[in-house]
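Long-time lurker, first post. I've been practising inverse folding by hand and with some scripts of my own, and I keep getting stuck on stretches where the structure tokens seem ambiguous. Below is the full token string for one chain I'm working on. Before anyone asks, I'm not after the true native sequence, just a reasonable design that respects the backbone. If someone could post their per-position residues I'd love to compare against what I wrote down in my notebook.
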């Protein structure tokens, strides 16, 4: 038999058993679709997290009060909490040559009121540097002005959602609002920004950091954001900041976090989850492969006389083996194509339902899932093919197995 004959016989056999073929192809397609969707979801999640980190700013070193243990029994526990203060920020600003901007941040929650309307907001105390390191822009008015961080005027910059809910169509600039029962003059409105790593900038109220600390009776800062001159300067900035704070505190009772470190941690976790989910989904491909083996074993049993006739006509063991193996691979191949088509269609639907997650097919995962599917077909089809090839021609012609 020529190769064309083998392919023709395999196609004819699959055509004659449409229902069995269709169910087997469906089983493979479901497995391929599951792997494709779950891996695409993992890649989309990683891209979303990366985008969120980019929105935080660039070349940042975040300083947190207290030392967070990252190894051992106490991993994740913050110990030795001591305030990071405005004096620490001034020391970093003047003594760390690799740092070009320092933004102190205090945080609290309070009600903001105007004209009988009110809502709860996060009140973030900071300086003019915060807008630079977080790349914030004013949609109206201005951002926080420069000045002595310990003092500050009673001014506020509000988010776009706060502006809409409190003022409606009214111009908020110059209006007086109450935040935690203290009067503030609205000097600006932030451009719509949405959420970024847990902060919804559209629902914030920015006030001078000194005012924020006094408003909530806080002695220390929530965090400090130090911006290095470039990505290459980040290691130097970390060394300098650590040296300055350790000297001032007489101990390393603080935690330094960089964007790259956080991003690498998130990416490694997401990659591990993606591989785990892909492995779970691949189990369905293994189940589909067992289905292929069962179908081929039934086919061998039903076509014993056909195998005997082919051998009587001169077909050798290798040609019989290739015939049944070709059928198994064709089943898995059709299932892979159907699964790819279904998976791509579901990605388009998912993109419409969840626009924040861009589901894009990965060429690497497509190649991997197709190879896995064809491999499963070949692996699970090998045993029935070898069984068919081992049949004796005389006994097969009699219909005996």
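-- Answer (accepted) --
I ran through it position by position. Result:
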């Amino acid at each position: 038999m020529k190769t064309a004959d083998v392919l023709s016989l395999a196609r004819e056999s699959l055509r004659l058993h449409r229902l069995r073929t269709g169910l087997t192809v469906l089983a493979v397609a479901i497995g391929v679709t599951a792997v494709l969707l779950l891996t695409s979801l993992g890649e989309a999640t990683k891209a979303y997290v990366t985008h969120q980190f980019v929105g935080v700013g660039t070349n940042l070193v975040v300083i947190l009060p207290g030392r967070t243990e990252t190894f051992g029994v106490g991993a994740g526990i913050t110990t030795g909490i001591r305030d990071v203060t405005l004096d620490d920020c001034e020391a970093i600003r003047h003594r760390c040559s690799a740092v070009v901007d320092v933004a102190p941040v205090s945080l609290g929650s309070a009600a903001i009121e105007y004209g009988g309307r009110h809502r709860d907001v996060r009140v973030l105390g900071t300086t003019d540097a915060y807008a630079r390191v977080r790349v914030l822009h004013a949609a109206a008015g201005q951002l926080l002005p420069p000045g002595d961080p310990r003092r500050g005027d009673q001014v506020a910059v509000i988010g776009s959602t706060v502006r809409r809910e409190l003022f409606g169509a009214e111009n908020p600039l110059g209006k007086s609002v109450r935040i935690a029962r203290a009067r503030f003059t609205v000097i600006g409105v932030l451009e719509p920004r949405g959420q970024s790593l847990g902060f919804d900038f559209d629902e914030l109220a920015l006030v001078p950091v000194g005012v924020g600390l006094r408003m909530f009776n806080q002695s220390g800062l929530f965090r400090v954001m130090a911006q290095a001159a470039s990505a290459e300067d980040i290691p130097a900035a970390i060394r300098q900041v650590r040296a300055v704070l350790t000297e001032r505190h007489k101990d390393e009772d603080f935690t330094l976090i960089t964007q790259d470190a956080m991003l690498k941690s998130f990416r490694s976790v997401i990659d591990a989850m993606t591989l785990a989910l892909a492995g779970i989904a691949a189990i369905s491909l293994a189940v589909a492969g067992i289905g292929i083996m069962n179908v081929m074993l039934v086919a061998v049993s039903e076509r014993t006389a056909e195998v005997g006739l082919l051998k009587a006509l001169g077909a050798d063991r290798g040609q019989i083996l290739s015939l049944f193996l070709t059928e198994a691979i064709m089943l898995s191949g059709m299932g892979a194509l159907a699964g790819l088509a279904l998976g791509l269609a579901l990605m388009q639907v998912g993109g419409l339902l969840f626009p924040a997650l861009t589901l894009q097919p990965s060429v690497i995962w497509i190649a991997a899932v197709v190879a896995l599917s064809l491999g499963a077909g070949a692996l699970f089809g090998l045993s029935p093919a070898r069984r068919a090839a081992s049949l004796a021609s005389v006994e097969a012609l009699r219909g005996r197995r």
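A couple of notes from the structure itself: Residues 70-79 have pLDDT under 50 and may be disordered. The radius of gyration is 33 Å. Happy to go over any region you disagree with.
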